[in-house]
Prior knowledge:
Layout: E1 2-7, H1 13-26, E2 31-36, E3 48-56, E4 59-60, H2 62-70, H3 72-75, E5 79-86, H4 94-102, H5 105-111, E6 115-120, H6 129-135, H7 148-163
Parallel strand pairs: 1-2, 1-3, 3-5, 5-6
Antiparallel strand pairs: 3-4
This protein binds flavin mononucleotide.
Amino acid sequence: MNILITYMTKTNTTKEVGQKIAQVLSAHDMSVDLIPIQDISDMIKYDGIIIGGPINGMKWVPEAVAFINENQALLRQKKTALYFVSYLLHNSRKIWKRSIRTSLNPSKNIINAGEIGMFGGKIEQSFPTPVRWLFGVNKDLPLDTIKWDDVIKWANELVEYFKKD
Ligand SMILES: Cc1cc2nc3c(=O)[nH]c(=O)nc-3n(C[C@H](O)[C@H](O)[C@H](O)COP(=O)(O)O)c2cc1C
């Protein structure tokens, strides 16, 4: 089974998550390519395609949304899964969390993606106080909020999804 994981990233988190997913799928005898979204040319050979990107401005990055829109005809014929990384996913005001959690729904619907993975992200410096207040972020929140167990769990769900008829 040939799987493509394609990603857009600004500070590498989405790629690191993609690498972990690739490890899990490879351990289940899947052949996995991990390729930046801007380098994708041909996707015909893949049985399953996973598309990842960070949340910026409470939305999935426009590059990921555009990729889906532009390739929707082909993506609709494949098993697909989407994921995002977001620093505020688990730790912000309800209104932001809701906006983040639903931000991939239009893309999911366009291509009938079977799975959505939602993961914490990381930032390099803590937010200034007014920004923390705006987002409702606790002052003790670590800079890195990725829960690798969540990533591994989702990757195992993907194994089932891709293997299913
Ligand atoms: C320009 C910019 C905007 C961001 N906006 C958000 C946001 O709206 N919500 C959020 O949860 N995280 C936001 N983040 C944090 C990212 O989700 C987090 O840093 C993530 O790990 C970045 O993934 P990447 O390294 O793959 O780019 C933002 C980060 C950057 C650099």
